[in-house]
Amino acid sequence: MAGLKSTDADVRMGARLTEARRAAGLTQRTVAAAIGVSAAQLQKYEKGTNRLSATSLPVIADLVGKQISWFFGDEPELTTEESAEIERAVLGAVQGIVDRRRGVGAEVRH
């Protein structure tokens, strides 16, 4: 994201992304294609240089078989119910973003 410097949290999330991708036996190119970015951009996410978008995280989590909350690694251990609740909230927020964008696009086309 332009103008925003990466933080320690971005670096930790990037390390988690790398760990999950490798454990799943996936290449950077495969994961990048799934979220619609270049392998070079995914590498920046993994290094924590660039921030991973909220819309990409659910796709990656599904691809590597992890819950979204797992990527925030420094959180205390959550119960399955707590993790599911967080995941529902994040997915709901992402869906809201997608719905708003579709609505804006539909208004522009008319």
UniProtKB/TrEMBL annotation:
The keyword DNA-binding applies. GO terms for molecular function: DNA binding. InterPro entries: Cro/C1-type_HTH, Lambda_DNA-bd_dom_sf. Residues 17-71 form the HTH cro/C1-type domain. It comes from the Bacteria. The keyword Iron-sulfur does not apply. This is HTH cro/C1-type domain-containing protein. The lineage of its organism: Bacteria, Pseudomonadati, Pseudomonadota, Alphaproteobacteria, Hyphomicrobiales.
